[in-house]
């Protein structure tokens, strides 16, 4: 085999083909050759020798260890050919005379441009068009580029990322909450509509880059609740696994404040880069599932000691305050001088009409009964079981009946039919007055 005829070298995961170390070579003619050994040093020497023989010097000198390397048909390349070297998430590309490096997790978009499988990678340096090739090496490039560009069911370090190294899912959700939720009460406390939350989470897990949030598409509560669920379900969570989470919880028990802050700083610096960036720029929850009071204490102390732990200067803090003020002022300026209220405050009684059982709830025109029940139970600190049964009724005082038209009675009947919620076997009643 002539080294000039090798168009791709692919390093396999350990043990894939029965040997500890294997790699594949793809030829110009479309043939595939598999080589294997159990000797790590021999394996590394062969990979380095082949890479040196195949890659142009400009790329080999900066490439280091590669998972996959070779040449592809590329619109932007020299004579339609580009040389590529992929190591974990870093893709180095030699197009003309210079080598460009892109982090596949930080791509702006990644698309298959036609049925043949041509790929378009858009990053800050511009678009990169990989033209479809029916030889077997191209399918492998497609697969590994898509895998290394970030996946929603992986730890934070393997998610789709922004330029600042923060998962796109977290960044876009918090941006939406900042834009539309600063004048709303109960953010992260109130529940969103479960079907909306589930659908939105599935969209982010499938391809976070393609999700755009607009004020009218999802409520702030939907987005905030989806973010909480994402942080609970993501692998290793923000604090990088249970073992590290325990270290944060132990630090919360320290009596000396300066020692505690110093310990938090050490733990923060030991986090993986993406987790640290996420924690430093957004300080989201994610240490516990909410049942452990100590976990809430850690998050609270991180927020209270934000400047000390993260070494944030007064100017940076003031800039953040100014940004928040600008958003709030923009909201106020966009409010009409007078408008018809879109919600009303009602007294809701739990189980019985008693002063201690009343809850005042702001009810919007589009509030569902499921949402109403969820809000009341949360305000009364009642944990609703997955199979629990609740009923909801509207009662009218007898003296008020004469003032109600038949049409309103009809509307009330429809409202009552929509207020019935299933779950399990409780006969508890939720009275709406």
From TrEMBL:
Membrane-crossing residue ranges in chain numbering: 404-421
One Gene Ontology term of the molecular function aspect: GTPase activator activity
Protein's GO biological process: regulation of cell shape; signal transduction
UniProt superkingdom: Eukaryota
Rho-GAP domain: residues covered: 159-357
Gene Ontology CC entries for this record: cytoplasm
InterPro entries noted in UniProt: Arf-Rho-GAP_ANK-PH_domain, PH_domain, Rho_GTPase_activation_prot, RhoGAP_dom
Keywords: Membrane, Transmembrane, Transmembrane helix
The PH domain, residue ranges: 1-55
PROSITE patterns, sorted: PH_DOMAIN (PS50003), RHOGAP (PS50238)
PANTHER family the UniProt entry points to: ARF-GAP WITH RHO-GAP DOMAIN, ANK REPEAT AND PH DOMAIN-CONTAINING PROTEIN 1 (PTHR45899:SF3), RHO GTPASE ACTIVATING PROTEIN AT 15B, ISOFORM C (PTHR45899)
Protein's recorded name: ArfGAP with RhoGAP domain, ankyrin repeat and PH domain 1a
């Amino acid at each position: 085999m002539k080294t000039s005829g090798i168009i791709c070298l692919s390093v396999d995961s350990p043990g894939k083909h029965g040997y500890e170390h294997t790699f594949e070579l793809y030829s110009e003619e479309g043939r595939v050759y598999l080589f294997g050994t159990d000797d790590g040093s021999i394996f590394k020497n062969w990979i380095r020798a082949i890479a040196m023989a195949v890659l142009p010097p400009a790329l080999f000198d900066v490439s280091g260890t590669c998972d996959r390397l070779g040449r592809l048909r590329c619109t932007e390349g020299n004579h339609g050919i580009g040389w590529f070297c992929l190591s974990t998430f870093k893709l180095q590309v030699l197009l003309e005379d210079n080598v460009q490096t892109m982090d596949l997790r930080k791509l702006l978009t990644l698309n298959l441009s036609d049925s043949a499988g041509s790929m378009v990678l858009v990053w800050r340096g511009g678009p990169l068009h990989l033209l479809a090739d029916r030889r077997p090496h191209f399918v492998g490039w497609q697969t590994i580029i898509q895998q290394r560009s970030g996946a929603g069911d992986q730890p934070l370090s393997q998610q789709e990322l922004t330029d600042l190294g923060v998962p796109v899912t977290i960044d876009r959700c918090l941006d939406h909450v900042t834009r539309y939720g600063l004048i709303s009460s109960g953010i992260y406390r109130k529940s969103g509509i479960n079907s909306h939350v589930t659908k939105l989470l599935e969209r982010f897990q499938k391809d976070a880059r393609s999700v755009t949030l607009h004020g009218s598409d999802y409520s702030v509560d939907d987005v905030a609740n989806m973010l909480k669920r994402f942080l609970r379900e993501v692998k290793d969570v923000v604090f990088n696994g249970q073992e590290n989470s325990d270290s944060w919880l132990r630090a919360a028990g320290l009596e000396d404040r300066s020692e505690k802050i110093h310990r938090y700083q050490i733990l923060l610096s030991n986090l993986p880069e993406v987790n640290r960036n996420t924690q430093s720029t957004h300080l989201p929850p994610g240490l516990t599932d909410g049942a452990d009071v100590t976990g809430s204490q850690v998050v609270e102390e991180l927020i209270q000691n934000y400047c000390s732990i993260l070494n944030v200067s007064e100017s940076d803090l003031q800039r953040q305050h100014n940004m928040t003020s600008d958003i709030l002022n923009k909201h106020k300026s966009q409010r009409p001088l007078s408008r018809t209220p879109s919600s009303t405050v009602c007294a809701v009684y739990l189980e019985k009409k008693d002063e201690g059982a009343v809850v005042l709830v702001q009810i919007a025109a589009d509030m569902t009964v499921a949402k109403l029940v969820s809000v009341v139970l949360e305000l009364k600190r009642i944990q609703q079981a997955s199979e629990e049964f609740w009923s909801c009724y509207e009662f009218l005082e007898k003296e008020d009946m004469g003032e109600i038209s038949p049409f309103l009675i009809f509307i009330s009947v429809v409202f009552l039919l929509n207020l019935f919620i299933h779950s399990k076997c409780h006969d508890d009643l939720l009275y709406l007055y």
